[in-house]
């Protein structure tokens, strides 16, 4: 449940969300009628009205003083303590806000607002365990709270605990924000089909959503489906007239897919609306060059670079234009800067090679041309690997193990540095009963990416079945380190610690599983076994 709201309280909430730091005034001067009413009738409600007015008008110290004075006569008011904490946040004193918020929770534990605010404060101060505790408390009060799901999933994502994000949001309300975050978590683990499915479901509910269309287009591009991304963003743009975000998303994909006949007028339209926007300048600069207007392209790209010097794409395309204009020194400077900033397009090395050759640096030019060839092959192989992995996913879902294994093997051959593809191959081999092959792929996967929690957990299970409890513990520990919110991994870790007779650690791991999911029957059973019998092992 939430605290009852009145107009003044709404003002303080908005003020705190904005997060402006207030300035303490020499004297607290509020509306005369509110001040007079509080003086005549010093009730909690009147104090809330006046204090909230102070907060809404960024007189946070006055709000704090008003709420604290009221607490002297009504110390059991949870709302007063909560509003004091909220005003302290507005005043830029988050640490001071924590005690009154804790008091509010103690006095009224079923009010969700203090839990939400306290979770946010703990998160910003890096107190992970306390953060998780408050988000979970909020969701226990309201299992449909979009604010709690948003805050908790954002916190988990910031720690790169993407498995826990997926576990949390799988059954959460399918809002635009939550759908995008769930899809991003799948995408970070390279589960592109799952990411696409989530976003596709979201678009069914909100077909005109620009944000969902944008997120889906990113997944489609990663899957090598540029044409589908183009169609999707064209639909979003057509159904959101005069929406700058929709126009900009559509322009990006038009430039990417080289549809300059449609991109050119849209780019000029956006340039007229926002003539100094760095991305609009960059995209128009690319289009200027493609139609042979290199002087205009140079001007647009130079302004884009001046505004955002560390955007590699602007640097790269400015370098390309300067090559075309035979301005070799400046071209070299910008192409080298683009590479230093992480420009991913192999052609940046080809353009730098041309520049160096023109400047007489032939040996280095040869190296850049070779680098271009190598990266081009790597990129072609990566695209092919993505296609084979996607085919393997479909085959595995259909129960076609032989075909899935063949496709995953091809993906691994083409992209030998992909830990996720090796994990997928291990999963298929597991289903085919090839234990040794599964183990080989899992070991390679965790070597490439020690934070791939799913592979660590699966390798731990495999070692546990083979009787190597010590090895299993090591990999379960890596799994919970990579995904601290993963209940199953904590349960597996607890069980294997018990096998190794590390009973205090086993009990702590079981307790962590229960803290994460108090209703988990498996964790409860294991915890009870460890409490009754220190030699208890997994049945």
SSE arrangement:
Blueprint: H1 7-18, H2 32-40, H3 44-56, H4 60-73, H5 78-90, H6 94-107, H7 112-124, H8 128-141, H9 146-158, H10 162-169, H11 176-188, H12 192-205, H13 210-222, H14 226-238, H15 244-256, H16 260-273, H17 278-290, H18 294-307, H19 312-324, H20 328-340, H21 347-358, H22 362-397, H23 401-414, H24 419-431, H25 435-448, H26 453-465, H27 469-482, H28 487-499, H29 503-516, H30 521-532
Distance between the termini: 41 Å
Order of helices and strands: HHHHHHHHHHHHHHHHHHHHHHHHHHHHHH
CATH architecture assignment of the domain at 1-143: Alpha Horseshoe
- Percent of residues in beta strands? under 5%
Mean pLDDT equals 91
Gyration radius, rounded: 29 Å
CATH class of the domain at 1-143: Mainly Alpha
Report the uncertain regions. Answer: 5-26
Q: What are its keywords?
A:
flat, Serine Threonine Protein Phosphatase 5, Tetratricopeptide repeat, mainly alpha, 539 residues
């Amino acid at each position: 449940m939430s605290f009852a709201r009145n107009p003044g309280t709404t003002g303080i909430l908005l003020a705190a969300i904005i997060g402006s730091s207030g300035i303490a005034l020499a004297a607290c001067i509020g509306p005369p009628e509110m001040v007079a009413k509080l003086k005549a009738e010093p009730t909690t409600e009147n104090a809330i009205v006046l204090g909230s007015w102070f907060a809404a008008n960024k007189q946070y110290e006055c709000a704090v003083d008003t709420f604290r004075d009221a607490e002297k006569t009504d110390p059991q008011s949870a709302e007063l303590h909560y509003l004091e904490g909220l005003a302290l946040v507005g005043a830029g004193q988050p640490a001071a806000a924590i005690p009154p918020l804790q008091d509010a929770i103690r006095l009224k534990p079923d009010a969700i607002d203090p839990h939400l605010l306290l979770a946010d404060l703990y998160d910003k101060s890096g107190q992970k365990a306390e953060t998780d505790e408050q988000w979970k408390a909020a969701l226990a009060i309201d299992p449909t709270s979009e604010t709690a799901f948003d805050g908790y999933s954002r916190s988990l994502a910031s720690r790169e605990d993407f498995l826990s994000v997926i576990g949390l949001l799988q059954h959460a309300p399918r809002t635009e924000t939550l759908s995008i975050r769930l899809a991003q978590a799948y995408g970070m683990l390279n589960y592109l089909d799952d990411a696409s499915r989530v976003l596709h479901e979201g678009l069914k509910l909100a077909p005109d959503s620009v944000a969902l269309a944008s997120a889906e287009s990113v997944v489609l591009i990663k899957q090598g489906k540029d044409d589908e991304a183009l169609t999707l963003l064209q639909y979003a743009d057509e159904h959101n007239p005069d929406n700058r975000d929709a126009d900009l998303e559509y322009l990006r994909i038009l430039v990417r897919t080289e549809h300059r006949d449609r991109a050119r007028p849209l780019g000029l339209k956006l340039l007229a609306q926002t003539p100094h926007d760095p991305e609009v300048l960059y995209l128009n600069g690319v289009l200027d060059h493609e139609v042979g207007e290199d002087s205009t392209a140079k001007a647009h790209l130079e302004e884009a670079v001046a505004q955002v010097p560390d955007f590699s794409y602007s640097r790269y395309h400015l370098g390309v234009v300067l090559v075309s204009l035979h301005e070799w020194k400046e071209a070299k400077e910008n192409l080298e800067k683009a590479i230093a900033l992480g420009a991913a397009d192999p052609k940046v090395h080809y353009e730098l090679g041309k520049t160096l050759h023109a400047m007489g640096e032939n040996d280095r030019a040869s190296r850049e041309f070779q680098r271009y060839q190598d990266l081009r092959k790597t990129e072609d192989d990566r695209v092919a690997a993505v296609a084979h992995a996607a085919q393997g996913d479909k085959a595995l879902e259909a129960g076609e193990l032989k075909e899935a294994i063949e496709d995953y093997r091809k993906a691994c051959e083409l992209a030998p540095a992909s830990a996720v593809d090796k994990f997928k191959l291990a999963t298929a081999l597991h289903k085919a009963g090839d234990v040794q092959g599964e183990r080989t792929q899992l070991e390679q996967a965790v070597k490439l990416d020690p934070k791939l929690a799913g592979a660590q957990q699966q390798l731990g299970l495999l070692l546990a079945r083979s009787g190597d409890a010590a090895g299993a513990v090591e990999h379960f520990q890596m799994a919970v380190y990579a995904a601290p919110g993963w209940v199953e991994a904590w349960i597996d870790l607890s069980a294997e610690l018990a096998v190794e007779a590390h009973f205090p650690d086993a009990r702590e791991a079981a307790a962590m599983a229960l803290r994460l999911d108090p209703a988990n029957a498996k964790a409860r059973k294991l915890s009870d076994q460890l409490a009754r019998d220190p030699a208890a092992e997994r049945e």
